[in-house]
Known about the structure:
- Helices cover 34% and strands 31% of the residues.
- By secondary structure, it is of the alpha+beta class.
- The longest helix is centred in the first third of the chain and has 23 residues, at 16-38.
Amino acid sequence: MDNEVYFSERQKFKQWWLWVILLGINGLLLFGVFKQLIAGQQFGDKPMSNMGLLLIAGLSLLLTALFYNFRLETQVKKDGIYVRFFPFHLSYHRYTWEKVSRSFIRQYNPIGEYGGWGLRLGPSDTGKALNVSGNQGLQLEFTNKKKLLIGTNKPAELAETLNKIGQLKP
């Protein structure tokens, strides 16, 4: 088996508005922890307990760390396409070319077709999606009629690679 990687891409969440929201919430909660636990003043009109405030701040920081560590990794090899959405997939999922009836690059509407970014399940006519940013992706249609869209920020390079190995099947 040929394990040479012809194409590789690693993507992370880059939406500025997501980071503004997460960092804003963290900043507010850390300010509350400082004000209530260190300065000894209540935080808000109806302050929660110190333990509750620490718990909520900790969960918010963990959620931010989780989003920071999300990544979509795609590899194209001779025997198929390998995809992993870390931390949900600890190992790569392999989709062999024999099970792919069509594969092509397309523009899509992340919110309209799949309800956003991440591990997404769209209506039956669009299938599943793995995406973290942008609106370009590799559409795979399988011999069992299922579909998978894999988001990419390198559509031209991916199309060129698939074309070179004879797997661009419009």
